[in-house]
Amino acid sequence: MTGYYPEGKLISTPENLYAMQSVASLTEAWHEGRILEAKAIVCDCSHNLIVDLGVIKGVIPREEGALGIKEGTVRDIAVISRVNRPVCFVITDLRKNERGKTVAVLSRRIAQEKCMNEYIQNLVPGDVIDAKITHLDSFGAFADIGCGIVSLIPIDSISVSRIDHPRERFRVGMDIKAVIRSFEGGRISLTHKELLGTWEENAARFDIGETVAGTIRSVEEYGAFVELAPNLAGLAEMKENIKAGQQASVFIKNIIPSRMKIKLIIIDTFDYDYSPGQPEYFFSGSHMDYFRYSPADSDKLIETNFGLTVTDTGSLSSPANRQWISRGRAASDPA
Predict the structure, then answer these.
(1) Which CATH number fits domain 199-270: 3.80.30.20, 2.40.50.140, 3.40.50.1820, 2.60.40.1180?
(2) C-beta separation of 36 from 60 below 8 A
(3) Does residue 56 carry a pLDDT above 70?
């Protein structure tokens, strides 16, 4: 347990609930500099966040709403979008307002600074961390990796099997695991597919002669690629009137580990509004140096090397921390 989590993780913990019991317990948390969480209920016209602390109200001044707001490098949407959601903060003051009521002055920025300095800056490529999906875009999924600090999982790093949009894997608010991929220009990039198992681990769940569920991912002149699992797809013989995105029942004709091939026959297809479930992870450790997707006897190599370079200034960079190398067909072609 790191002590720093995506926003929403602390709000129901015994320690956080205790702090919200009274002004005295909030004062104790203030003096100890503890990070707390509560729900933001209003963003006023000056973009100050009003937070419900239970016994009293708190206010996060606009410039304390997030790292970079004061400097202008982060837009105010980072504050506005927190309404009706948990926010992390430290208490910086308890004072009386004009009506004589006690109000807490809060800073989310300081909480994020503490998270950055004491947790995130100590991470290295290959570290496996908790994350929470905050929003989805066509090019990737954004995830909170601690105290509302957001990093990107590029779409090609979400799974080995290709997808058209991250919503096919994730939902906003979903708790996931992710791997630190790189530190580049002050930005942290994440990857996810290395946690979803090797080709052999996924293929071991299927047997020749079974008819199983799948998702048609693409239709080519020579056949259709059907996803059996996020890190496993097979090539099916062509069938009329099928299209990408359809659900399918497929017969497993053959499994060939040396060529990383699964040969399929499409039995039936149908349209279905799919909602992604919680990812199933094959890796349960806290760090991976190396991940090999392809079987040892395969004629092509697909691997991830997490390298770490410390520059002269002490910052982290990883110009070659992730190399997907393929012999033969493209590394992104799972069939």
Answers:
(1) 2.40.50.140
(2) no
(3) yes
